[in-house]
Design brief:
Two copies of one chain form a homodimer. Chain A contains eleven helices and 17 strands. Chain A is of the alpha/beta class. Chain A has a domain of 225 residues: Alpha-Beta Barrel (TIM Barrel), CATH 3.20.20.10. In chain A, strands 1, 10, 11, 12, 13, 14, 15, 16 and 17 form a nine-stranded mixed β-sheet that branches. In chain A, helix 4 runs parallel beside helix 5, helix 5 packs across helix 6 and helix 7 packs parallel to helix 8. The longest helix of chain A has 25 residues. Chain A is elongated, with a radius of gyration of 22 Å. Chain A starts with 14 loop residues before the first strand and ends in an 8-residue tail after the last strand. The interface between A and B is large, with 68 and 68 residues.
Chain lengths: 372, 372
């Protein structure tokens, strides 16, 4: 039976459902917020892994799309999105060869560098291929993951400026360690501290080269906070489009912030076994709902008192929070907010796109599995 | 560049590598162990998600293949494997319709039942389609996930025996809660306790129907233990073929048991960022190495003192365990035993199959993403 036209609760499970109205609201809201602050938005596709969704973000006003890996950029370019920023260093000869092939198709492709050896490898292959490439200096503002320390950034920038194959476009300063700090005031302090360091580097760079016009940073957890940094030119948020239980918990930690972005993404799962005391077994386990970032939330209003927990690779359990709680019957379909959207989406091949609870489209998650 | 013929350390990363000799050794060893005990082997494909590997298991002597979900069974049948047991209850009309379609192509298909309502739904659709189906009664011997309580098993069995569409073939009694108990003696006690309950049910069933010839149970963690149960007819182990850090930790908890099965599956990952103190950043994160079941292990003999930890969706960190530890340089490729093989494999599309460190083949993980 074809999915389009069906009520979402009639879909075979487990499956990912995307509420088009909520998605649209999220996209418009972030775009408007960013524009009102005089900034640009370059949303991250690593979250949704879907080029159709990336195109919606571009249509809403985004200046480009971020990809975490070269293989993701390949899929985006293949889908007709030329202006992709690869946000991780492309550091091996093999991977740079893939980047070169892509650069021929997408001359607006951009990436980051965080090490002189990385710059050298890029230059060699660019020279061999007769190509040029725009790059940002990736700054490590406290996460310790990728990026050069701010104190060494100018030295690396000079190395890039000395190259006739690379064009320095600015900096990237993503603070992955800040995004999930629960308390807003703590998150604010940590985020601004890091970005102020980055801003100082950016000002220095701008005095050195006119081509340095991009200061790209931030994520869903600190988006609102970071817009106050005058030097910042664009945001790299990703999860705002779909949301998950992890970000909702943070968004709602302070009443004032609650519900800026709505959970547009949900998972449907079916009760497949009963008779196990105060819990029932559902068909979404580790391989459906990625086990990271807190517990999924049950949305069905008729079951307000159920707690999801993982129950192996293939199953989950819905446990009654208190005695006397009504348990769903065998065959009941439950709707959950997923715990961590990025790796959960990466386990599926398609979104069932709905409007008012009816399936209106099916979108391929074409960047799925692209971890290279 | 084509992968076949390359040294595995030249592959683009992150990627999954399968050592064909170790795999073959694991397959032969489990098969020989099971046969020596007078039992059969019905390996679980939920672990490796690869029909080519399932065919190797059949060639080694397995009597059939287990699938956790109907969608996995579809892929196995499509690949030419007709004798599949679906080990989870197929409990909704939608899913049973898929099972019916598959049954037309694969008349030896078998599944389990654990509830009278489930039996009724199956019967209705079987009658409508003019088909018959072999089933096992799924027993809950303490896990509380799927299965009927042993005390209610005979009542459910009578319901199946009364059906002219279903043929009762025996029981299934999988104790997922037992497989990872660290201490061998505790694991042994827990496993035998559960299986003795199941054996009592099986003996009763055999007096009721000649068709009841299957008592299917066990997993990699309890395989050796469970073979002493006289009534047991077959094992459902899966992870033994590939192994992971989680099972290795258990296997090696007692010296006597150590290294029954070797890690045939590994992941390759590359250092993509350095200069972050006593750690380096690699390109395998949550979306490559599933974060479950303990930490992956670094195999490279030149780096005996590195500890892997997750560092977000796209990255991992390799941390020096002590001062003065040599850290790998930018671009170095590391080989890791994955933490939990099942969900890790489910994040990839192919295995790079090697012999003596050289790629000899590429196998499609054709059951990947099949969580329905």
């Amino acid at each position: 039976m074809k999915p389009v036209g069906r009520n979402k609760f009639e879909l075979d499970t487990p499956c990912l459902v995307l509420d088009l109205d909520l998605l649209d609201e999220n996209l418009q809201k972030m775009q408007a917020t960013v524009v009102a602050a005089g900034k640009a938005l370059r949303p991250h596709a690593k979250t949704h892994k879907c080029s159709l969704l990336a195109k919606m973000q571009l249509a809403a006003g985004a200046v480009g799309i971020c990809a975490a890996k070269v293989s993701e950029a390949e899929a985006l370019v293949h889908a007709g999105i030329p202006n992709v920023l690869v946000t991780g260093p492309v550091a091996t000869a093999e991977k740079i060869a893939r980047l070169m092939a892509l650069l021929r198709k997408a001359p607006f492709l951009m990436t980051v560098v965080d090490h002189p050896a990385n710059v050298e490898l890029l230059e060699q292959q660019l020279a061999g291929a007769g190509l040029n490439l725009d790059v940002l200096v990736d700054l490590d503002i406290g996460h310790g993951r990728t990026g050069v320390a701010p104190g060494k950034a100018m030295e690396l920038a000079e190395r890039v400026l000395a190259s006739d194959r690379l064009r320095l476009r600015g900096i990237q300063a993503y603070a992955g360690n800040v995004q999930h700090i629960p308390r807003y005031s703590d998150r604010r302090a940590a985020s601004l501290k890091g970005l102020k360091q980055a801003a100082a580097v950016f000002r220095q760079l701008q005095t050195r080269a006119e081509s340095c016009t991009i200061f790209s940073a931030s994520g869903t957890g600190s988006a609102k906070i970071d817009l106050v940094i005058p030097e910042l030119t664009e945001l790299q948020a990703g999860s705002y489009a779909l949301m998950d239980a992890e970000y909702l918990a943070i968004e709602c930690a302070d009443g004032s912030e609650c519900a800026d972005y709505q959970p547009a993404l949900t998972m449907l799962t079916t009760v497949v076994s009963v008779g196990h005391g105060r819990q029932v077994t559902v068909d979404a386990g580790l391989k459906a709902l990625y086990k990271d970032g807190g517990h999924p939330r049950v949305l069905n209003p008729e079951f307000p008192n159920l707690h999801y927990d993982w129950f192996g690779d293939e199953y989950g359990k819905l446990c009654a929070r208190s005695r006397g709680t009504l348990l769903p019957e065998l065959g009941t379909v439950l709707e959950l907010v997923v715990s961590h959207c990025d790796p959960t989406i990466n386990q599926f091949d398609r979104f069932f796109v709905t409007r008012d609870g009816k399936v209106v489209d099916v979108w391929t998650i074409d960047l799925r599995g692209r971890s290279q």
